[in-house]
UniProtKB/TrEMBL annotation:
It is found in: Membrane. One of its GO terms (cellular component) is membrane. InterPro entries: Cyt_c_bgen_Ccs1/CcsB/ResB, ResB-like_domain. The keyword Transmembrane applies. It is a multi-pass membrane protein. The chain crosses the membrane at residues 53-75, 152-173, 431-450. This is Cytochrome c biogenesis protein ResB. Keywords: Cytochrome c-type biogenesis, Membrane, Transmembrane, Transmembrane helix. GO terms for biological process: cytochrome complex assembly. Residues 1-491 form the ResB-like domain.
Amino acid sequence: MRTALVLLFLLALAALPGALLPQRDLNEPKVREYITQHGWWGQLLDRLQFFDVYASVWFSAIYLLLMVSLVGCLAPRSVDYIRSMRAKPVLTPRNLSRMPHHTRAELDADPDEVLAAATKRLRGWRKVEREEKNGARSISAERGYLRETGNLFFHFGMLGVIITFALGAMYSYEGQVIVFADGSDASEFCNSGIYAYDSFNPGLRVDGTQLTPFCFRVNDFKATYADSGQPIAYESNLEYQSGDDLADNTWRPYHLEVNEPLRTDGDRVYLLDHGFAPEFTVTFPDGSTRTHSIQWRPVDNTTGLSEGATKFETPGITDPVERRENQLAVTGLFAPTAMLQGKVLTSAGPQLTDPAVAVDVMRGDLGVDSGRGQSIFEIDQSMVDSGRLERVARENLEVGQQLRLDDGTTVRFDGVNQWVSLQVSHDPTQVWVLGFAVAMFAGLGGSLFIKRRRVWVRVTPAQGADDQRLTVVEVGGLARTDQAGYGEEFAKIADDLLSGDRKAR
């Protein structure tokens, strides 16, 4: 146990860098920034795996040693427990008066009657009757063996939780996806591969080719807010199909809420967040039009103010250089409940009552052909800094309003769609984790509340006055655990055994 406690302390100490330093699996840019700012010190920490604490060699070593220590502790304790369960209660002490609890009386009763009454009173106790010297007979009884059972249950449950967590990390996966909440094709999602997700975190043994097949379609979304603008509830009606439903194209309804996920075939679909997707129509000088609606990122959850960038390609241009020089991006802010402070657009609340946008129209090279990944929520600032992407218009627009560019191109704000952010989680070991966790708490309750105690009853025949037969009865007790209450229990047992016509005490 000392070894386990030392390793637990070391594990807690080793986890501190993971809380104090940025971690690569959570925020790679933050790690690079930290290393750059701290020079040789940041590089040394990187070589020592302080930015990958929970996957580091030294953290894993402590973790594995703790596992070995736990198994090494449980194995001999289990053997000792089996031996103690098979063993008979200990012999009755020679001098019961030395026990913490002791009572003696002379009863006008036959020894067999006293022993029979004692056996009946100690029903449920593990007991054995023995013959002693001088014609004395005794009963040795013990109770509370389930205390050690609970202790072992707790530790085996802990071991099971650790193992199932490890297996879950190998075979589970978690992905996030954003879909529109209008019942259109853009609101459908099928769990057919990792390419369908916006972000995907697989387990060590998950390659993304054998995901649980199911589909869902989000038909609407409703948010309830407090007067302060804080969200109270998110609700969404969706339809889903899994298993045999996929073969016969059967859609089943489900009302999705926060913390009330859709559960299907071992997967869970959670409702995380929502936002807005302004819709713009660009009419080019040749009369061709392009309409796009893509999600914008919330920047203030209490007002619903969002920012983003909707990007367009000019149609009919085949020359790659000319095509890159004539790309368009509509960037800016979206307010669900518009409020102007001068010409500055802000939002009075998150409810979608009076939508408006404040847009900057950028023209030039968006950098989408550079080969580098690019956020859908913003434009490449390096293109602006280099002069390859320029702002050609700025204006506030309400629904139905449009602005005209210098070449005759018009940009119209058509309206807004709502999107929801959903998370799909798959963990095949969650039922086992729950079972072992329940075993842990049940075992902990048993080890805390069950009392281990012993009782001895010695019956000795004695010759009384006037040839009256007396029986000397001694009752001794010992609590195996430091827990209050056994004194009252012993007194009640002794009173039941020694009640009757007594001649002495």
